[in-house]
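The authors assume throughout that readers already know how a fold can be written as discrete tokens. Each protein is reduced to its one-letter sequence and a matching series of backbone shape codes. I therefore recommend that a typical entry be quoted early in the introduction. For illustration, here is how one protein appears when written out as sequence plus structure tokens:
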Amino acid sequence: MLVLVGMMTAALIFDFRGNRLLLNRYNTFGLLLLAVAVGVEVIDSVSQVHGTYYDIIFYAICSFIAGTCYSIQAKMNKRLARDLGSTARSALFCNVTAMVWAIPLWIVLQSSGIPLSFQEPKWWIWLLCGLQSAFYTYSLAELPKMIGYSVVFVLVLAGKLTTASLADTFGLFSAPRPVSVARFVSVAWGPGLLKYGDYLG
């Protein structure tokens, strides 16, 4: 969730600087609802982290920085798409670059005693991971110029919270856990109020 907080922070800065987002009472309330959902998730996640107090702070800072990098990547993808002539070329370039940078990381992990092993036998999972990455990169380059960075990342946040809620409710990856009312209300109303708050105000 701290990754998403970083994403939203950078996205709001971009939109305020570009005069794409003017806050009124409705979309401010939408942001507050999303903040409540993020807070609930962070408290729940921190309770499951094993390590010292300093470890948790370090993980939190790294997560926040990773989130701001997502928003900066969206800004860079937009410029890269303009320079390369298409969003598809931008997505291809980003994914190839990520693959090239993964090679030194793999070498470091190997030397640290963490072997690379392909244990997932279902080929379609590998395919879906690649398609998801390409779709995400393409969307980050194309959608912000249409609806703004803040709205894009609010919807990304809502999608992630909704998926996490469904996974928790039905126990897709762990034991089933009930979804809190705060998270449900925040996911249901937060993005809509931020997106359409200007019309209500």
In short: The chain has one domain: 2-200. The mean pLDDT is 73.
